[in-house]
Amino acid sequence: GQNIDQPTEMTATEGAIVQINCTYQTSGFNGLFWYQQHAGEAPTFLSYNVLDGLEEKGRFSSFLSRSKGYSYLLLKELQMKDSASYLCAVLDSNYQLIWGAGTKLIIKP
Amino acid sequence: ETGVTQTPRHLVMGMTNKKSLKCEQHLGHNAMYWYKQSAKKPLELMFVYNFKEQTENNSVPSRFSPECPNSSHLFLHLHTLQPEDSALYLCASSQDPSGGASEQFFGPGTRLTVL
User: pLDDT tens-digit profile of A20-62?
Assistant: First the structure.
């Protein structure tokens, strides 16, 4: 079956760096997405990786290793507003998104 | 209005009621999606419409009935629901997914409670 694994919850300190991991086993691969979802709000797009390597976008970076079925989202200079759930999703061979359950990130002052 | 809108934002209904959720996208996309989001579970894809044609129905119970009159509007008709159907129902849209990877834009969701 298809499976996306990510930690349920993480805690970090304001100003620090945190890495949220995602491992996947899917039928085919057409890219991996990261979304951010604040409580009670819609998920919003953060990043898309289809080739191996690191994509940097401001304070957020996303890494992909297709051979290992692994990705991570790196958040630098954490701010209180970064408290949210972070969803990992893989686009399978049918171009359907397979979602992880999300990682709830708690930022402490 | 911009982006993806959903109404109502909150809905409480009895098991014998009939109600409808509405979604509208103002992005010129061709594909629209209904998802169910339950606490601590992955997003569950329910239905996909591409160019107004249903392309995916992930074994959703018949008490959920989608309707897509055009590529900008999507409805989810609800009848005789069960308490376990209580969840956040999210609508999303994207460009034609068969054309390659395409970011999905989400609406704010309808928080549904079935009593």
Answer: 999 999 989 999 999 999 998 899 999 999 999 999 999 999 9
Helix and strand numbers (H, E) in chain A are 0, 11
Helix (H, G, I), strand (E, B) or coil at B83: helix
**DSSP per residue over B1-30, as a string?**
--SEEEE-SEEEE-TT-EEEEEEEE-S--S
Bridging pattern class, strands A3-5 and A97-99 = unpaired
Whether B43 and chain A come into contact, CB under 8 Å, resolves to yes
pLDDT tens readout for residues B93-115: 998 776 667 889 999 999 999 99
The distance in angstroms from the start CA to the end CA of chain B is 32
Most A CBs within 10 Å, among B96, B106, B110, B111, to test the A interface: B106
